[in-house]
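Tokens as discussed.
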């Protein structure tokens, strides 16, 4: 056994180079091997509800999810997968689908060959593939299906469904140590060993190393960081990052960001999911947006123009700058699916919506396009800066529309294919 690895802090302003892992092809997406970190998400529909599942998968894909996972837990959901795939293809939604299997995956894949073929990847949990003497047999059957259909597998160990026999074995070994580990460290080791030992077993069965992704999820920030540092040190498999059961609202966002930002900064992680609990009736797409914003703010990738906006203070008693910032953010996010095709590079654009004279002109000059709105008691004029130079001053009732039009014009002149 190895202790968790504590890495020294890189120099200020620097980051660890990306950890180079096995490159895994999942449909048309490559995970690992130095490729950009991939965003994935998961549906919460009944997979057997083909129409509802298709609708949600398409929403997640349009929001930017590059892989989408669906629960496959009974014959009805397994039978629905090829129909979901067919309807998505008819809609022009090519996102690879991942099947999430627990307990009975070997039976479902055997009973529905079309499901086994339609999925781009299988996700299996070594703690839930079976129990007792059946565990090894059923795990092997799942791996053999992956080999037969040429599919990669994510072997995803989870704190909440840990292999209890392995945990008991490591506890026994620990009791005989001259200097025993604390219980938390033993359980972390059990989680890591569950993933690593299962991966090596899959390789022995015949699954190539470049068709394996590992994860070892826990719900605590510091535990997740320790587990993945150790996992990264002890293998070259591609790693999927995620804080399991992160929670609802700001708690889930903050906890996931706190854990994953540290690991990403250290070059650890090839694909991520933000496991948010959505508010009742709310869209599932928030987890995709948070994942994108996390990758963009940590400098990993760019997805949509970033809007800098001041928080407001006693100088900005009007809410107009807040409303304008929201209009601008919604506008560029809504335009990105089109701009991604017709205006590549627009996702790197920076925008600023500032509320008064204190930091407004300075922040606006630092952005590609920035507007400095008048604060309380200031002259009713809003200078707009383009690439550091004052371009125009906006006044009147149509500032929002005019500023958005300036953004669109800038994108057309700078990022249209063939521009410049």
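Sequence:
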């Amino acid at each position: 056994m190895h202790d968790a690895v504590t890495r020294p802090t890189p120099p200020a302003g620097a980051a660890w180079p990306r950890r180079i892992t096995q490159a895994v092809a999942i449909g048309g997406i490559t995970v690992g091997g130095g490729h950009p970190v991939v965003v994935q998400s998961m549906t919460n529909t009944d997979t057997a509800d083909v129409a509802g599942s298709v609708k949600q998968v398409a929403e997640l894909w349009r929001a930017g999810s590059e892989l989408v996972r669906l629960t496959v837990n009974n014959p009805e959901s397994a039978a629905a997968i090829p129909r979901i795939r067919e309807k998505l293809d008819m809609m022009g939604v090519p996102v690879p689908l991942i099947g999430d299997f627990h307990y009975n995956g070997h039976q479902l894949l055997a009973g529905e060959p079309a499901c086994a073929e339609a999925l781009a990847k299988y996700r299996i949990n070594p703690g839930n593939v079976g129990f007792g003497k059946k565990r090894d047999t059923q795990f092997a059957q799942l791996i053999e299906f992956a080999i037969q259909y040429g599919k990669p597998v994510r072997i995803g160990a989870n704190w909440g469904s840990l292999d209890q026999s392995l945990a008991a074995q490591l506890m026994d070994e620990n009791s005989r140590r001259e200097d025993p580990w604390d219980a938390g460290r033993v359980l972390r080791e059990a989680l890591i060993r569950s993933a690593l030992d299962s991966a090596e077993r899959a390789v022995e069965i015949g699954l190539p190393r470049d068709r394996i992704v590992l994860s070892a999820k826990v719900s605590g920030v510091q535990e997740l960081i320790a587990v993945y540092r150790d996992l990264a040190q002890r293998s070259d498999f591609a790693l999927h990052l995620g804080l399991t059961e992160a929670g609802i609202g700001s708690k889930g966002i903050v906890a996931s960001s706190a854990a994953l930002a540290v690991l990403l900064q250290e070059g650890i992680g090839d694909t991520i999911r933000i496991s948010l609990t959505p508010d009742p009736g709310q869209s599932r797409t928030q987890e995709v947006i948070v994942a994108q914003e996390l990758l963009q703010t940590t400098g990993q990738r760019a997805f949509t123009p970033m809007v800098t906006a001041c928080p407001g203070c006693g100088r900005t008693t009007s809410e107009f700058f807040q409303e304008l910032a929201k209009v601008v953010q919604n506008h560029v996010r809504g335009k990105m699916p089109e701009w991604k095709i017709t205006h590549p590079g627009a996702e790197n654009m920076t925008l600023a919506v500032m509320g008064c004279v204190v930091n407004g002109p300075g922040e606006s000059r630092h952005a590609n396009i920035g507007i400095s709105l008048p604060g309380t008691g200031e002259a009713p004029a809003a200078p707009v800066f383009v690439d550091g130079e004052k371009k125009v001053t906006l006044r009147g009732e149509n500032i929002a529309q005019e500023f958005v039009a300036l953004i669109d014009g800038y994108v057309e002149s700078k990022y249209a294919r063939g521009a410049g």
